[in-house]
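Researcher: Structure prediction, please.
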Amino acid sequence: MLTRRLIPCLDVRDGRVVKGVRFAGLRDAGDPVEQATRYERAGADELVMLDVSATPDGRGTALETVRALRAVLSIPLTVGGGVRKIDDALALLRAGADKVGINTAAVDDPETIRTLSTQVGAQCVVLAIDAARSAEDDRWVVVTRSGTNRTPLDAVEWARRGESLGAGEILLTSWDRDGTHSGYDLELLDAVCSSVRIPVIASGGASSAAHMAEAIEAGADAVLAASIFHDNKTTVCEIKNQLAACGVEVRR
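Model: Predicted structure follows.
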């Protein structure tokens, strides 16, 4: 069986981990280096760091935070937020990121995906898709600029196009479920996972191993969570034990 990955996420603003609901109402959730160290010791397979204020503030990702995380981590690190051009992505990789997540820049100029994939390899390119259910019809639309801009772009079609342009992985976040602890949007996950061949990371809404098992059943290759770990409601190790008990193959 294919081993599924469990990935804690650090949403970072001004050098601190923050967490909110639907990308708003952010509260302090600790020091990123301390959190990252704790998660790796507990068995995290990878770590994602998203600089949630970089794009709205019109600046690049905080490279010093990336370097500090790389200094204490041996597991793969994906970094996103504030990547507006190829040079921003290359700077993150030089600072210690293994993969770079791009969202707004890719929507503004889809060829950014192809150019970056050609330069550094598809395995380093993560297309971050923040998706919200449309109020007009039964589909999901892409949200950019840290949730402040709702585009008319169909999220499932965008996932297909991102794959064709050279993305090696998709980080799929449900804007509607983010921070709600109500579980992943399984319909959204199924729609995207059945439309692409590259790995999909489920994000937005997890509060239990049961939610994660549901996401994997819907097709996710990896599951991401934040506040349940930040708030010490559970640990990576506990979640992995529970997933294993459900028959999910995880790295122990």
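Model: The chain has one domain: 5-245.
Researcher: Thanks, that helps.
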